[in-house]
Amino acid sequence: MSNMLELQGVTKHYNAGKPNEVQVLNGVDLTVKKGEVVALVAPSGAGKSTLLHIAGMLDTARSGRVVIDGTDVTGLDDTARTAMRRGQVGFIYQFHHLLPEFSALENIVLPQLANGVSQRDAEARALKLLTSVGVEARADHRPAAMSGGEQQRVAFCRALANRPALLLADEPTGNLDPATSDRVFEALMKVARDEGLAALIATHNMELAGKMDRVLRLDNGVLVPAT
């Protein structure tokens, strides 16, 4: 399998050059192959979110390279980065951030319309995704009428609406109770496998992490295999 995501020597500092400078990432090297699901574990505040944001072009590294599907995105301008994100990367966060005034189906349709997909095709794709995670019965419901687990599954579908090749997830089950977390994680893994995604999933739940293909730990700013 070829690499979908590569981080090469990535560093990140906050308050650079100041007495209270904090080095969050210290030469991170990472590869995620196409079709591979990798867990990223670390204590809160260790830099997991920063690493994901750099990998997804939402933030920039102080040094190092980010390569997505063979394209070095490190030096791309904002317009090119936005286009790359829309076409290649899907994001899932701990909190679903669904648009409250729109239904589940509409929340998944909207990013597709922004990407030039027809209404008919966007709705068909949205319904297929909702069905794949078992919430098709909630297609016409607004977020407030759904449970937390249902809302998060809709958020998964929205992240995959534009058929990204790379999925980045930041504690995607972190605000759910254990039973709901397990169900939602199973839905996430099913979608990732069905879509053939490369995925990097940050989690503090070692049981869930152990169900992924590899587990990496962020330790003092570098990645090491989890033991």
Task: Please give the structural blueprint.
Blueprint: E1 3-14, E2 22-33, E3 37-41, H1 48-55, E4 63-68, E5 71-72, H2 78-88, E6 89-92, H3 104-114, H4 119-132, H5 148-159, E7 166-170, H6 178-195, E8 198-202, H7 206-209, E9 214-219, E10 222-225
Parallel strand pairs: 3-8, 3-9, 6-7, 7-8
Antiparallel strand pairs: 1-2, 1-4, 4-5, 9-10
- Give the helix tally: 7
State the oligomer.
single chain
Question: What do the pLDDT scores average to?
Answer: 86
- Architecture per CATH nomenclature, i.e. the level-2 architecture: 3-Layer(aba) Sandwich
Number of distinct beta strands = 10
* Overall number of structural domains: 1
Fourth-level CATH superfamily = P-loop containing nucleotide triphosphate hydrolases
Task: Return the CATH class.
Answer: Alpha Beta
Low-confidence stretches: none
* Strands in their spatial order, largest beta sheet: 6-7-8-3-9-10
In one word, what is the shape? globular
Polypeptide structure, described:
The protein has 7 helices and 10 strands. By secondary structure, it is of the alpha/beta class. The chain has one domain: Rossmann fold (3-Layer(aba) Sandwich). The strands form 2 sheets. A 6-stranded mixed β-sheet has the order 6-7-8-3-9-10. The chain has a 4-stranded antiparallel β-sheet with strand order 2-1-4-5, covered by helices on one side. It comes from Pacificibacter marinus. Pfam families: ABC_tran (PF00005). GO terms for molecular function: ATP binding; ATP hydrolysis activity; transmembrane transporter activity.
